[in-house]
Amino acid sequence: MKFNNFAFMTSTNKDIMTRFDEKLEILKEEIKRPNPGANCAILTFTNILDVLGKEELKSHYFTNLAAPFPLFGGYKSKDGWKGPCGAVSGALAGLGVIIGGDKKISKMSEVRKAEMSAGRFAIQFSKKFGSICCADICGYDMTKPDNMMEYMKNNTWEKKCMHFVLFAIDQVRKQTEKELLKNWE
Description:
By secondary structure, the protein is mainly α. It has one domain. It is 64% helix and 2% strand. The protein contains ten helices and two strands. Strands 1-2 form a two-stranded antiparallel ribbon. Strand 1 and strand 2 (6-7) form a beta hairpin. The radius of gyration is 16 Å and the shape is globular. It starts with a strand and ends with a helix.
């Protein structure tokens, strides 16, 4: 079975941490040239969902949900505001799914737990790459067509962005180990 061009792993024989390790190894090669219908947010979010191994998480709605994140993230306002990297946005969505488990997050304590997890993720990502802002770490305002052409010409995906995706998925795994073992085994 395929999910976003990656083999779907079932949870029957492998524990969740092993599935994350295997997914990251596969992705190191496969995302060098991602499917044209994918981007950093889609790849981060849907691969986290893929590892969780639940049938209901294979819906195209999750791909659609993550699709606009990178352009929003690559935006720079005239006042200096910059959006987050798509890998960060996809990872934060993944954190919410993992922390919530198979139940809706409905208590303020659960909301705060997800928020605090997002903050810890942002700190770790910033330590590794210097910022969580797309324009800062990839170097382009993605709302400008000329910048997108330059991004592609300079192989920025392979040089930078794919590494953001791999780090984001791995950081989500590390940061949510307790929840993964409790809610997703």
